């Protein structure tokens, strides 16, 4: 198995969407919960190769020419929220009507497109930058999550950023353990599922 990390491009959007769906249920596949399997990715992955202030790196299984993981984020969360609010969420919302959907998870995401949550002020005070990371289950536990986070940290340092935060799914206990091992921790005013990392 030959794995590498590279900068993501807009052409990786379908792969990001697929991985997001296959990890959207607290790290497990959420395929069975959706008729519109692209919805999780449209919220939590694809914008990061489409919008300003964003960045993304992907983990690639070279033997299969397959993207199997990613770390994505924004170096300016408030600017990201504003641009997405003006240019991204409204476009997606037009395509997905919750009243036309059957499954609860599809409805949840369709409603989210109409009223996307924004970061608490405490998170922004800690750092303007946030991230999301997901790796397919078969590729977890091999140290690649740590390498993806380090790649993100190195990039953000180059951009003059001193810390980064993320929000966790409260059900994903393995993810919480992973972040704790890497030094992520609560910060002043953080919610129970928000953790941050100050760079050395």
TrEMBL record:
PANTHER family from the UniProt entry: L-AMINO ACID N-ACETYLTRANSFERASE (PTHR43617)
Domain N-acetyltransferase residues, every copy: 3-200
Annotated protein name in UniProt: Acyl-CoA N-acyltransferase
InterPro entries on file: Acyl_CoA_acyltransferase, GNAT_dom, MshD_Acetyltransferase
Transmembrane residue ranges: none
Organism: Mycena belliarum
Coiled-coil ranges from the UniProt annotation: none
Any Pfam family: Acetyltransf_1
Single Gene Ontology MF annotation: acyltransferase activity, transferring groups other than amino-acyl groups
